[in-house]
Specification:
The chain has about 200 residues and is mainly alpha-helical. The protein folds into two domains: about 100 residues, Arc Repressor Mutant, subunit A (Orthogonal Bundle), CATH 1.10.10; about 60 residues. The chain is built from seven helices and three strands.
Length: about 200
């Protein structure tokens, strides 16, 4: 990930923040983090040495306020900020570009992570299905086959029933006679078929 501040730019940016208002070290760290959208969070080891250098150069002064040390820009510091306004605008423009690049990198990383997560979830789902299939018992397999054959038998019976009914209705509609003896034969044939089914089930 590219750095937010180029060499020397952080010093001038800190000075510009102090030109806005006096701040203590932690306040400066927070301001830098906020101005960069949280993409840059400097440590105390980064901020305080630069503040000490600015103090040595007479650009800032410090006063102790209770447990806090507050830094304030001097007239010399304001003059430097004013004379280097062009440099400061360049820093701010570069800062905006850097933040956008970092945000793009973060978005790309998130997209890659999401793709990887989806791939992992899909792989885990496949493994779970394969494991479930490998753990299936012969009884489960037999039941599954029986359910398939039951559907097949239901379809055959329904087809037979529909065909016989259609033939009987068509025979009567054409004026044919449906004698009691004929119905007796149909009932006998169906009973024999039922017995055959029962034997097949027992076998």
């Amino acid at each position: 990930m590219s750095p937010v501040f180029s060499h020397g730019d952080l010093r001038l940016y800190i000075l510009s923040l102090l030109d806005e208002a006096p701040r203590h070290g932690y306040d400066l760290m927070q301001a830098l983090s906020e101005r960069t959208g949280g993409t840059y969070s400097p440590s105390a080891g980064t901020i305080y040495p630069r503040l000490s250098k600015l103090e040595e150069e007479g650009l800032v002064t410090k006063t102790v306020d209770g447990r806090k040390t507050v830094y304030e820009i001097t007239d010399a510091g304001r003059t430097e900020v004013a004379t280097r306004s062009g440099d400061l605008e360049g820093i701010q423009a570069g800062l905006a570009d850097s933040v956008r690049l970092i945000a793009d990198e973060v978005r790309g990383s998130v997209r890659d992570a999401m793709r990887s997560l989806r791939a992992d979830l899909a792989a885990a789902s496949r493994e779970e299905r394969e494991h479930a299939q490998s753990q299936s018992t012969p009884v489960d397999d037999a039941r599954s086959r029986s359910r398939e054959q039951l559907s097949r038998a239901d379809a055959a019976i329904n087809e037979f029933r529909g065909r016989v009914r259609s033939e009987l209705r068509a025979h009567v509609a054409r004026g044919g006679e449906l004698a009691a003896s004929g119905v007796d034969e149909i009932e006998s044939a169906l009973a024999q078929a039922s017995d055959a089914v029962a034997r097949a089930m027992r076998g």
